[in-house]
Inverse folding.
């Protein structure tokens, strides 16, 4: 049996605007990768997408999220 876990998900920029929220909590009883999480919060069709887990930018969508993690979903940004 998998342990229950809760992950805080933050949305930024156009992603937050499109979803109509800046954050949510995702609760699950099964192991979940970042890719699974992106699908679960309805962001699979957002391309490209920048991701951070616990304020560290990641590129590995296969990374397993852990209980208490904070995952941020951001649109690409540019500027100078």
């Amino acid at each position: 049996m998998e342990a229950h876990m809760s992950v805080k998900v933050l949305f930024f920029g156009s992603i937050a605007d499109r979803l109509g929220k800046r954050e949510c909590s995702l609760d699950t009883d099964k192991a979940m990768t970042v890719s699974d999480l992106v699908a679960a919060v309805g962001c699979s069709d957002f391309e490209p997408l920048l991701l951070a887990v616990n304020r560290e930018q990641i590129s590995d969508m296969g990374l397993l999220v852990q209980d208490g993690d904070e995952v941020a979903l951001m649109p690409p940004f540019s500027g100078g």
